[in-house]
Design a protein that fits this description.
The protein is an alpha+beta fold. It is built from seven helices and ten strands.
């Protein structure tokens, strides 16, 4: 049986991540052995996000809340990798994977984790920040593209680090995901 046909049958003819039936194709997930065990059937919107973390669309990838529970191991591994890239440690911590699957899922994160080690995020006091930390804003900040100001003393919980810039973190203030300069933060 050819790989595409096998994946179509397994997925029911829809994207194995978001359920879309538009622009479907086979995507081999590294490290790959060119079988259905290391490939997924994805739509044209999910595929580029899997291949390039800079294209991640958090709103579209809300589907990961469901696919992280998939009975298909490779779909679970891709969900794990994308949730890590989105900085959703809360969801990653809820996932259960056996040791072999976890090793496979982590194999796709090697490049990202080595890049993280080179970039160290520090708050205004020089304290090292980690993904998932809670920080407090030390100065009133106008938030571009919105009508509100992030007030001094506001706690930002479960932050995500911007991997290519040690001076920025991402967090939610008033329900809006924003980037904040680390020099205006202190770890709480």
């Amino acid at each position: 049986m050819n790989l595409e046909k096998e994946l179509q049958d397994r997925s029911g003819g829809v994207c194995e991540l978001c359920g879309s039936s538009e622009g479907l194709s086979v995507l081999e997930v590294a490290p790959s052995d060119a079988t259905a065990n290391t490939a997924i059937y994805v739509c044209s919107k999910c595929a580029p996000q899997i291949q390039d973390a800079s294209l991640l669309d958090e709103a579209h990838l809300n589907c990961l809340n469901d696919t992280m529970w998939s009975e298909t191991p490779v779909v679970q591994a891709v969900s794990y990798r994308l949730l890590n890239a989105l900085g959703r440690q809360d969801l990653v911590d809820m996932m259960y994977m056996d040791d072999e699957l976890k090793a496979y899922a982590d194999a796709g994160l090697v490049d990202a984790s080595s890049a993280n080690e080179a970039v160290v995020h520090k708050d205004a006091n020089g304290v090292v920040l980690q993904t998932g930390d809670t920080v407090v804003i030390t100065k009133d900040l106008d938030v571009k593209g919105t009508t509100f100001t992030a007030k001094r003393g506001t706690a930002v919980r479960n932050i995500a680090l911007v991997h290519d810039n040690s001076e920025l973190i991402e967090g939610r203030v008033n329900g809006v995901k924003i980037q904040i300069l680390t020099k205006f933060l202190k770890k709480s």
